[in-house]
Amino acid sequence: MASRDPSRGETAVSTLAGQGLSVEHVILDVTDDDSIIAAAKVVEEKNGHIDVLVNNAGIIVKHLNDRSRRQAWKDTFDTNVFGVAPVTDAFIPLLKKSVDPAPRAVFGSSDLGRLETKYDPQHQHFKRPVLVYRCSKTALHMLALAERSVEGGPKNAVRLAVLGKDGETGQISGDEGILP
Ligand SMILES: NC(=O)c1ccc[n+]([C@@H]2O[C@H](COP(=O)([O-])OP(=O)(O)OC[C@H]3O[C@@H](n4cnc5c(N)ncnc54)[C@H](OP(=O)(O)O)[C@@H]3O)[C@@H](O)[C@H]2O)c1
After folding, report:
1. Could you list the residue ranges that cross the membrane (predicted)?
2. Does the beta carbon of 8 sit less than 6 angstroms from any atom of ligand 1?
3. Which residue has the CA at smallest separation from atom 6 of ligand 1?
């Protein structure tokens, strides 16, 4: 389990260990290429491979505060899109070393990024604001599909993470199943 903040990461590991789960922490800031490469190296040295990569880190800028609008776009895309591509690139070699019959990368996206939600004025998300976030998740969909993998919320991410070799791929899905 990766996090950019060492103490928050260790706290999370302790909490999970208290629930009987075996979790190790690695430092990873998805906006920092050196951090990404270092994290992949640590995992490779400790474990040699991974079976599943879950790209979960994501931000939403709800208030600009002292940020310019351009900076809000940059910050959002830096984490939600630009960070995902190099993280996936860095960890794919470790996925390729997996002996699992279905190693996979999962991309944590959002319904708000699906174009369908803006085609239909009756759609529950049609009028939802957070345009910058929405655009970043739409871009993530193209990236994820180009990686031939899938996305969805936490429950769906777990389902996808343990799919067998006959499981779906190259699809966008949510808790309700495969989506247009
Ligand atoms: N919550 C929802 O309703 C919802 C719905 C659909 C999709 N999603 C997506 O699900 C994912 C998780 O969302 P969440 O609701 O659990 O949000 P969250 O509680 O804010 O968690 C996001 C996590 O991403 C981490 N993060 C942010 N920037 C990072 C960076 N540069 N490097 C490494 N880690 C970074 C944060 O770490 P820190 O603790 O250091 O800030 C935080 O732990 C996101 O991709 C989000 O877009 C959420």
Report:
1. none
2. yes
3. 110
In a domain, 98, yes or no: yes
| 89 domain residue, yes or no | yes
> Does residue 42 fall inside a structural domain?
no
Q: In what order do the strands lie in the sheet with 52-55?
A: 52-55, 104-107, 150-151, 172-174, 177-179
Position in ligand 1 atom list of the atom nearest CA 30: 32
Q: For the chain, what is the domain count?
A: 1
From 96, 118, 133, 165, the catalytic residue: 133
Is residue 119 part of the annotated active site? The answer reads no
Taking CA atoms only, the protein residue closest to ligand 1 atom 47 is: 58
Q: Is the dihedral of CA 137, 74, 59, 47 positive or negative?
A: positive
Within-domain flag for 62:
yes
pLDDT in tens, the chain (180 residues): 999 999 999 999 999 999 999 999 999 999 999 999 999 999 999 999 999 999 999 999 988 888 999 999 999 999 999 999 999 999 999 999 999 988 999 999 999 999 989 888 898 888 888 999 999 999 999 998 876 544 445 678 778 888 888 888 888 888 888 888
Q: What whole-number distance in Å separates Cα of residue 152 and Cα of residue 175?
A: 7
